[in-house]
Amino acid sequence: MNLRERHKQERCDQIVLAAKQLLQDRGVAGFNMRELAETAGLSLATPYNLFGSKADILLALLDQTLDAMQAMIADLPSDDPIDRAYALVDASVAIYTSDPGYYRSVLHTLNTVTQKRSTRFVDRCVELMERAMRGAAERGLFLAHVRPELVARQIFLNYLGCFELWIYDQIDDRGLRDQTRHGLTMCLMAVGEQPLRDRLYPALVQLHKGVS
Question: Residue 124's domain spans which residues?
Answer without folding.
Answer: 55-208
